[in-house]
Amino acid sequence: MGLRTILHDSDPTLRKQSREVTNFDRRLHDLLDDLAETVAHANGAGLAAPQAGILRRVCVINVDGLIELVNPRITASDGTQEGAEGCLSIPGRTGLVKRPNRVIVEAQNRHGKSVVLEGEGFLARALCHELDHLNGVLYTDVMERFMTLEELAELDKEDEEE
User: Is 151 designated active site?
Assistant: First the structure.
């Protein structure tokens, strides 16, 4: 396993469509392991392969445990949530983004077996965010606006009170 370099938003790779994975081999397993190590090291909630310069439909999400997704797609969504969203590829910025409150994702695991995952709240947000990366979309493309330092401080204060 190894740490991957995370591309920043000026890199054109982040704007490209990722290709479907067809080989569930050691290279895929190594990529998933590297993404997991990289997102943990960066203290992030998720990381998609394009953020590491690999245009494959692969991502990991680190919300209440590690989730590995290969060839994921959202098959259903409902509700709406609005909240702060950041990205390892856009360090130091946070945007206000509307996302579905609940999503259902169909994908494959590292061995090619079909999996279905339902996410609500923050997990739904993370799933949407990472799947957007696979389509060359950054949260800045769908956000309402960047959040101010005062708004972020208020969010931190609310988190401390919970």
Answer: no
